[in-house]
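Revision sheet: structure tokens.
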Amino acid sequence: MKKNILVVDDSALMRRVICDIINTDSIFQATDVCRDGLEAYEKLKTTKYDAVVLDVNMPRMDGLELLEKLQQEHISATVIMVSTTTTADASVTMLAMERGAVDFVAKPYNIIEAKGEEFKSKLLSVLKAVLKNHSTEHFSSAVKPPVKTALKNKVSTPVKVAGNAGNKLVALACSTGGPKALQSVIPYLPKDMDAPMVLVQHMPKGFTKSMAERLNEISEISVKEAEEGDVLKKGWVYIAPGGKHMEVVKIADGGHKIHLNEEPAIGGLRPCANITYESLRTSSFDKIVCVVLTGMGADGTKGILSLRENKPVHVIAQNAQTCVVYGMPKAIADAGVVDEVVPLTEVAQTIIKNVGVH
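Predicted:
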């Protein structure tokens, strides 16, 4: 039986293009369309869809307002946002993840691009990946970021972690479902985490900056979009910017800094986590905690396998039940190098257990 998809967009042309894309795939059908959030709200009150493709900016009721309404009235829906990369839209999309959207697809700026292969393949692959996981509905609920002042009660942080002296780094990779998953991890890390973190989330340019800013707002730890030459500091999270690969390189004083490059995408990915992990082979860290969260494909596995030939590595993978897409964590688990498999809500605590606080 085909999966029923609701398309919500105020542009008649965009609705048609998105419906045409969905209907080209034999497993989906674009059953209904709505011009704004208000129409969609009325539909969702009475009709169950396998997924909703939702625009951000619409008259009467926008995408964010619709998600808030669904949340208030406990109407469950698997929502994928379609958003332009403008700063305003990108920041609203990050908020949409908190309000229950499971992922997003970047919307092309013109109809020629919208009819192009790139947008089509991205939209269909996200729909397929998200709907393949039957537990998605469970994860389409809202994430309530902790209040900064309440954080110290959220993660029990040992003062020092036995046997964990030395120079440590956390290197995290995620993809589909990642922006939402990160809101259940980063805000729960203490500001005195005894390691910096480098983070690769597959995202287009524009979205990574908005995500970094939003995570920084709701976290005790400091979060930024990585810039060329950033010197890694404990208690900081450096997010690879969309459209660039991120490497970690040694500097003269024994520390490490960020190097960004625009070399070709690998398997369609830029940033690519494998490049970040492989760059750590020549680092002087005594221990590297690798974390792999929800995502399509296998990015990160090759890099971690390469890295562990040179460095002491501890690998934490998100469990299948809490992943929007159990792809990247499955790939690293299948490679046989995972040390701990934990649900999403325990990832922050597991990181701290391994790196401690200072």
